[in-house]
Amino acid sequence: MLDAHIELLRALPIFRGLGEKQLAAILDVGKKVYFEPGHVLTRKDVAGDCAFLVLSGAVRCKDFPGMATGSEPIGPGALVGEMAMLVDTVYPLTVEATERVRALALQRSRLTRVMRRDPGIARQLADNLLLRLRSFARDLRHFELQLEQKEDASPPAAQARTATEIAVSSAAFDESRARGAARRFGGEY
Questions:
Q1: Using one digit for the tens of pLDDT, what is the confidence trace for 39-75?
Q2: Nearest alpha-carbon partner for 152 in 164, 140, 144
Q3: To 5 degrees, how large is the angle CA 178–CA 110–CA 50?
Q4: What was the pLDDT predicted at 181?
Q5: In DSSP terms, which residues pair with 53 in a beta bridge?
Q6: H helices, E strands: number in the chain
Q7: What is the DSSP letter of 38?
């Protein structure tokens, strides 16, 4: 069963590049938890210190923006509340079990201990987050270019900040947090 759980972690972008022993160390500090249908894993706008790797069952996001009743069910391999296992975080969504869920709770304090023992884990996680932020910023720039092309065809509208300016400032903030977390978890120990 350990191999199956390692494969679930390995498939997640945040854990890419980590070796089998590193993934096993992360699994070792995880705690198996269970949720019955309707029970909440994360609640929107509530501080959290834990991410949940869904091992079996399904969850859904409630009040997901742009969807009338919530997201489609998400099954094994989903990581809920990813940032909470790394830094102080307020959950952005409410996620509830749609059926009985078995999950692995990855608590920040326990993961921090693993990263202190193996700073390479912290560096790899920070690198993975940075790559994702850069990709997100690229996608936003592409989207902004598409919007500009449409705006060129219509009368100009006054805008205080462009989508890219907002994304870059947000990405810079998130990148700074990721680097700070890497320094706390890996650079100082």
A1: 999 999 999 999 999 999 999 998 766 655 566 788 9
A2: 144
A3: 65
A4: 47
A5: 79, 104
A6: 5, 9
A7: T
Tokens standing for 67?
């969807």
Other C-beta atoms lying within 10 Å of the C-beta of residue 51: 26
The per-residue pLDDT for range 135-171, each reduced to its tens digit, is 888 888 888 888 888 887 765 554 555 555 655 555 5
Q: Which of 55, 57, 41 is nearest to 5 (CA)?
A: 55
Name the residue ranges covered by the structural domains of the chain. 2-116, 119-187
For the domain made up of 2-116, the CATH class stated in words is: mainly beta
The secondary structure of residue 74, as a DSSP letter, is B
Q: Which two tokens stand for residue 144?
A: 């902004």
Q: Are 63 and 44 in contact (CB under 8 A)?
A: yes
Tell me the whole-structure pTM to 2 decimals.
0.71
Task: Name the phi and psi angles at 108, rounded to 5.
Answer: -55, -45
